[in-house]
């Protein structure tokens, strides 16, 4: 029986959703700082405004990146096959002891990578890690006009409080169990393997290009 248009559309959405769920999300460390800076500096003025809540200039972004604490906080990223960081999430832990069981979530996605569910996947990954780390609640501070971020939080079950130009969402997290801990371990192993494969492919591609340049140079000399 041939598929109807509705069935075909449903299949496309189903396949797209499956692809989103398979997106490898990597925990980032100190050595990723340059790529984090490159990603954030690549955001346009509108996206910077929504991510930081103000029109962040290059120098302000550079200070933010320089101040990232990879020991205290968690930073997650999605890389494409060219090893460009196309989506980034920062799970920030408060310094104050009275808020030690809380964390704040912030996310940015490169303009050309929008509409693929990366923001929602990063939110899910951050929530999983926070839960496994003993965090009770995850908070999101966003501009009220940042509908994409607020929708992600709302769909995850967060409670939204709108206060004029700014909004806050908080999500109560479930207690960790063996399944959530195993899921995070497997997610990280898959992401590390994916990154290693992409890095090797990128290095091989660079080598091939240099080889082609050398051959072209030799051919021009022979001529």
Secondary structure: elements and pairs:
Layout: H1 5-21, E1 26-28, H2 33-41, H3 45-52, H4 58-66, E2 74-79, E3 85-92, E4 102-109, H5 118-132, E5 137-143, H6 147-155, E6 159-163, E7 166-172, H7 178-222
Parallel strand pairs: 4-5
Antiparallel strand pairs: 1-2, 2-3, 3-4, 5-7, 6-7
Helix pairs in contact: 2-4
General description of the model:
- Residues 1-20 have low confidence and may be disordered.
- The longest helix has 45 residues, at 178-222.
- The chain is α+β, with helices and mostly antiparallel strands and 223 residues long.
- The protein has seven helices and seven strands.
- It has one domain: Aminopeptidase.
- The protein is 50% helix and 20% strand.
- The N and C termini lie far apart (62 Å).
- Strands 1-2-3-4-5-7-6 form a seven-stranded mixed beta sheet, sandwiched between helices.
Task: Pick out its properties.
Aminopeptidase; alpha+beta; 223 residues; disordered N terminus; 7 helices; 7-stranded mixed beta sheet
């Amino acid at each position: 029986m041939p598929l109807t248009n509705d069935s075909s559309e449903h299949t496309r959405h189903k396949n797209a959703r499956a692809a989103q769920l398979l997106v490898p999300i990597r925990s980032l460390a100190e050595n990723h700082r340059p790529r984090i800076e490159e990603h954030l500096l690549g955001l346009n003025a509108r996206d910077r405004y929504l991510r930081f809540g103000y029109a962040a200039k290059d120098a302000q972004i550079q200070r933010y990146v320089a101040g990232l604490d990879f020991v205290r906080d968690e930073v997650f990223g999605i890389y494409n096959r060219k090893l460009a960081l196309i989506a980034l999430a920062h799970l920030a832990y408060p310094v104050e002891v009275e808020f030690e069981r809380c964390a704040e979530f912030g996310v940015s996605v490169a303009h050309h990578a929008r509409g693929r569910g990366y923001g929602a996947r990063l939110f899910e990954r951050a929530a999983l890690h926070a839960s496994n780390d003993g965090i009770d609640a995850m908070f999101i501070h966003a501009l009220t006009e940042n509908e994409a971020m607020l929708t992600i939080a709302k769909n995850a079950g967060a409670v939204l409080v709108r206060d004029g130009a700014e909004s806050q969402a908080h999500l109560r997290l479930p207690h960790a169990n063996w399944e959530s801990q195993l899921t995070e371990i497997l997610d990280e192993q898959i992401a590390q393997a994916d990154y290693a494969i992409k890095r090797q492919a990128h290095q091989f591609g660079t080598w091939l290009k240099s080889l082609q340049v050398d051959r072209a140079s030799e051919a021009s000399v022979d001529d």
